[in-house]
């Protein structure tokens, strides 16, 4: 235990870094992904704003980016990182990459859940004379809100997972802490306390997500 | 005055690779302002496509659709949206917004139409009162029964005070009792609010309950059009005749006839019962005059638009020549008599 306590300041910093990376990635990636997902849903053939060219372009982009393992993605987008934030290492660089990776994952989750909205409800809105963009934002999204929140919760857990790889690029965080101060020094209490902390973060997120989704679904 | 007019409308759907399906084939209908016009047909007859042409949710391949003095088929999508705000629509599966309360559902078309909040609240309250669901305003739709859901659907469809209501199999998902309630409500919408209603259904009972006139659809075409009584009392197409037989069950089926024959050795004839005074007296005196004994062995008499319709099946016994003479006399008198052969 003493071995852990001596590292307490670093541990606190690591928690702060993880929260920073995860919070920004979930919010920025979540919003970007929402936009991409809406485009995928709405431009699909036969949908509200069907546009074959846009759909195909975005669909291919998502399919190309999404399967890349995060650790490779981090390396591959370094040129883009340099242009966007001026560096390829550190917490901000990792957050930038993670936000992008999350956005592509979120886009599919949004698309899938919107596709599950009953066509009849959309037809009712069309019959009322609503514009497609208004149907998308005031009918389709609210109707899918419960599953979408669960989807975001799923992404949150994935982002916590991916954030553990931040240490490889000087991003810090709990993953880095567990390796540097824990396993590399055969300091097992540090490893297990870090693991427990991550479990608590994930559980808290899952609990909050479930709660919000239940409220949206009123079940 | 014509409220809805479809002129020579054809609609084909492509299933890809040049595989075309003709949903509507040269269909023309004319719905008068203030009437309840029913379209009846088996599933796949093209009814759903037909009703969606009226509010422009579907566009015809060929032909014109007029609502009031506007030609829907000539409008841009933007202008069609404006027309849709004056056309209410209700659906088989109700299609209520689960993310909104009952009041929120009814308010939706008003929001779309840009009605301000105070006026929205007033109208929502009035509509929910009209459909008898004022006390459920703040519930979510999943807490309602099917009949209640459809009443919310009706309130929502009437929110913008449309002059035309489209009902797409509105009672097909309901049990018989709630069906009657919803149909009674549609009747009130027509009579009290003066709303023209176009309804599509596969059930003759729905047509009987509310429609003034009916079009029978068969394979994408209109088989017959006319008043409900004329079409179903004297069907000239098998499509119409099938619906009458299915709903009234007044004529014996082939199996029933076979069974009847085992216990009834005489000649079996079926007489159509129509709205005509002195009809049964004429039957009785004719059979009596020819010394023919007539036993009723099957049949049923019902009402269409408050006029009698049905048929009676008799077993006739007596001298063969006299029976022929009696049947001939009845036919001369304008009675529709069919001898059941076989």
UniProtKB/TrEMBL annotation, chain A:
Source domain of life: Bacteria
Domain (ABC transmembrane type-1) ranges: 15-209
Keywords tagged on the record: Cell membrane, Membrane, Transmembrane, Transmembrane helix, Transport
Localization per record: Cell membrane
Keyword Transport set for record: yes
Membrane spanning stretches: 20-41, 53-74, 80-106, 135-160, 190-213
Pfam family, one: BPD_transp_1
InterPro entries in the cross-refs: AA_ABC_Transporter_Permease, MetI-like, MetI-like_sf
Family: Belongs to the binding-protein-dependent transport system permease family.
PANTHER family with a match to the protein in the record: ABC TRANSPORTER PERMEASE (PTHR30450), TRANSPORTER, PERMEASE PROTEIN, PUTATIVE-RELATED (PTHR30450:SF14)
Protein known as: ABC-type transporter, permease component
UniProtKB/TrEMBL annotation, chain B:
InterPro entries named in the record: AAA+_ATPase (IPR003593), ABC_transporter-like_ATP-bd (IPR003439), ABC_transporter-like_CS (IPR017871), ACT-like_dom_sf (IPR045865), MetN_ABC (IPR041701), MetN_ABC_transporter-like (IPR050086), NIL_domain (IPR018449), P-loop_NTPase (IPR027417)
SUPFAM superfamilies, per the entry: ACT-like, P-loop containing nucleoside triphosphate hydrolases
Pfam families: ABC_tran, NIL
Gene Ontology molecular function, alphabetical: ATP binding
Superkingdom to which the source organism belongs: Bacteria
ABC transporter domain: residues covered: 4-244
Name of the molecule in the record: Methionine import ATP-binding protein MetN
Organism this protein belongs to: Paractinoplanes durhamensis
This protein's encoding gene: metN
